[in-house]
Design goal:
302 residues, Chitinase A, domain 3, 5-stranded mixed beta sheet, two-stranded antiparallel sheet, 11 helices, 7 strands, elongated
Length: 302
Amino acid sequence: MKVLSLFACVGAILSAQGQPPAPVPDFPDLPDNTVIAVFDDGTQYSLGEYKKLYAALPGNQQVMLRNRKEFLEQYALMRRLARLAEEEKLDRTSPNKEALEFNRQYLLSQAKLNQEVMSQSVEPEEIDKAYEARKEQYQQVKVKAIYIMFTKAAASQASNGKRLLTQEEAKAKAQALLAQIRAGADFVKLVRENSDDATSKEKDGDFATLRPTDQIGNEIKNAVFALKQGEVTEPIEQANGYYLLRADEINHRPLSEIRSELIDSLRQEKFRRWMDQTRGAVKVQFPNAVFLGQAPGPPPAK
């Protein structure tokens, strides 16, 4: 017989209402020593204890706030069933004792991992050194763009009635504009006269401030981050047009902006080193090759 989770009915309370769930309330403004429930064995349960349980059960937190009465009723039932099981010494019989020990070790191992992550300290000089070593990761390039649209259809017109260029015509136009730019033409003037990207055109070509971590195509990323300030890319082909991108301003995100991000990264690196050392210290011997499936087992008995 399949036994349902004790807390499954609490979740069902929400879905059975057939309405969007109400906003999750916060804890009531009461002292932590306030008694919020008295169980059938006389145990008084405080708000502070409820908050600690709330922190330990992230998967049930919405239910614990929105349906406090129902949750505590189910919790009281679980307490009583667990007490009855202990009286019958079910915690000492298989498979319960093995499951209890496995879960104990699992929770303690998770607690140790969490403690190790949070306990990693990072000194100010480490932050400064890491920032200088990784500075290129924090580069950012403010880009202006000219976009020349093309169509692969035999004949087509834009919404303004203007004939759309073929791919070959668009590429030739982009190359001609690039030649003008390198000869000293005003990039912004060419934007206003030629760009088919209405959004950036309205801002004199201002396209975006790009960073190496941005989710952009490699064609654009590689071209932009190879530029020196003031330089313009070769025409970059995209799905429906060609871009000419100019590096208007090249700088780096300041340390003050990425300090917390860098500290987290350094903590994770220290934790990974600790984890590698801990894992390396674990040695397991496997004396039975049959168990591992690496050797044939004994022939079946006749």
